[in-house]
Amino acid sequence: MSRLVFNGENHQLSLLDGDFTVVGSWKAYNNVDSRAKIKILINGSYSIQDKKKPHLHPGDNEDGSYGSYGIIRFNYPGHPGIGVHSGQAHNRYKPGPEHATMGCIRTTDEAMKKIKDYMETSPLTTITIKNNSGPSVDSPVAPRSYHPVRTWLA
Fold first, then answer.
1. Residue 72: which of 88, 56, 50 has the closest Cα?
2. I want to staple 28 with a disulfide (CB 3.0 to 4.6 A). Which of 32, 46, 107, 154 is the partner?
3. What SS3 class is residue 57?
4. Which pLDDT belongs to residue 38?
5. Residue 143: what pLDDT?
6. Comparing C-alpha atoms, which of 44, 52, 45, 49 is closest to residue 1?
């Protein structure tokens, strides 16, 4: 069984085999279009829906919405079609992995081909998203709210 790990801080998508050996690592982004329902994928582990092969759409190609190899969907609360895919390789505005999605993680066709080929013999089980939700509440750079306290003197 294999798994994916997406690191939002260094924009890397990694494919790991059953003993956590890195099979490959590629550029990937979770740049979300301002019209999307969700704004960022929350850190955590999610089960994969398409375990042995990506879900394909008619006309998939490197410049299409999902790339040449389809989408690997995972179970994300409130958004059943979220996944990992490529596409928009030659778009005028931020081509390739940096091109915005409706919440998905976008990577390269090279990555998707390798993942597709690997998952045929080692089905995907989970995707772990880390360093993508912003700083934790314990971080010194976390946004803070100031709430003044009023005191009344008698």
1. 50
2. 107
3. coil
4. 87
5. 41
6. 52
pLDDT at 63: 94
Structure tokens at 133: 């939700």
The token pair at 112 is 């998707």
> 68-72, long-range: CB within 8 Å, 24+ apart, which pairs?
68/109, 68/112, 68/113, 69/109, 69/112, 69/113, 69/115, 69/116, 70/112, 70/116, 71/104, 72/4, 72/48, 72/112, 72/115, 72/119, 72/124, 72/127
Which DSSP helix (H) or strand (E) runs through 72?
strand 71-73
- pLDDT (mean) for 86-102: 95
What amino acid is encoded at 42 in this protein? I
Rounded (10°) CA dihedral 6, 9, 12, 13: 10
What gap in Å lies between CA 97 and CA 3, rounded to an integer?
A: 20
What percentage of the chain reaches a pLDDT higher than 70?
A: 86
